[in-house]
Amino acid sequence: MTTTTSPTAPVGSPGGAPQPPRSARRRWPEGRATRAFRWLATGAGALILVVLAAVALFLIVRAWPALTADGATLGEDISWFPDDSSLLRFVGPLVFGTLLAAVLALLIATPISIGIALFISHYAPRRLANGLGYVIDLLAAIPSVVYGLWGAIWLAPRLSPVWQWLSETLGFIPLFAGPAADPPRVILTVGVVLAAMILPIITAVCREVFLQAPRLHEEAALALGATRWEMIRMAVLPFGRSGIVSAAMLGLGRALGETMAVLMILSPGALYSFNLLQAGQHQTIAANIALQFPEADPTGVSVLIATGLALFVITLAVNMAARAIVARRKEFSGAN
């Protein structure tokens, strides 16, 4: 009688499941190049924290004389420091003007940037989309002083009739209370110029985010009978929401620290005012530093560095808030 022998299962493989070769399971020791690269990457990451801490320490040390000085002393020693004022009362209107200009720029630029990014990623023909992408990247590389010259010499005279119309038509709203300044060296003009400066940054980031939207989700929406706009509203925009927030925060960071464009356009003031069309109402921290620094004595430099410390804290808080918003949606895939 013939007996049939079944193949013997390898040792250590329950149920006869094949195992990978021993060489594939071997854990090779970490080489010198791998260790060097790992330590180099770790050092680069730590360097960012070191630089951030060094900047913060520098600002605190150099601003300490102003932080501990009495307001009356600062008023006596510094010609441009207001009398009968404290450092907090001096910095407050500058912080208000900085935030107001940046928020105006963000409100103007974000919807336009999203529209341009959607047109490039989902509507424009390929050749036109590539050309617009190059133009957007080129706009992001233009120096701020060029934007300032453009805003002060070309844009402001053309905005003057618009601001006059807003003042006459919507003057009952406190934001547009008149009379509108002529020439319009006002915070709203600054907001328009800053919007033009941050528009390429927001557009470029949003474009890349929209291009990463899952193709299967878009095709599924179209297959169910959705129009292109409905597909974008249901599949693309929800997927790119965290990217839009990140792009807006990048633009906001640029607007918060802008100096030359604001200095060349805005007629400075030191008020808590929401009158967007009147001159001599607002000033930003960065522009005030550039304006006062050349003639400042050591005490004045300390005061200006104290205002720079306030701007540093504001920028850090904005970025931390943006990171928190993005982290809440990092598991979102566009399908839920």
TrEMBL record:
Keywords: Cell membrane, Membrane, Phosphate transport, Transmembrane, Transmembrane helix, Transport. GO terms for biological process: phosphate ion transport. Residues 1-29 are annotated as: Disordered. InterPro entries: MetI-like, MetI-like_sf, Phosphate_PstC, Phosphate_Transport_Permease. It is a multi-pass membrane protein. One of its GO terms (molecular function) is phosphate transmembrane transporter activity. SUPFAM superfamilies: MetI-like. One of its GO terms (cellular component) is plasma membrane. The chain crosses the membrane at residues 36-61, 94-120, 132-156, 186-206, 243-266, 301-322. PANTHER family: PHOSPHATE TRANSPORT SYSTEM PERMEASE PROTEIN PST (PTHR30425), PHOSPHATE TRANSPORT SYSTEM PERMEASE PROTEIN PSTC (PTHR30425:SF1). Belongs to the binding-protein-dependent transport system permease family. CysTW subfamily. Part of the binding-protein-dependent transport system for phosphate; probably responsible for the translocation of the substrate across the membrane. This is Phosphate transport system permease protein. It comes from Cellulomonas aerilata. The gene is pstC.
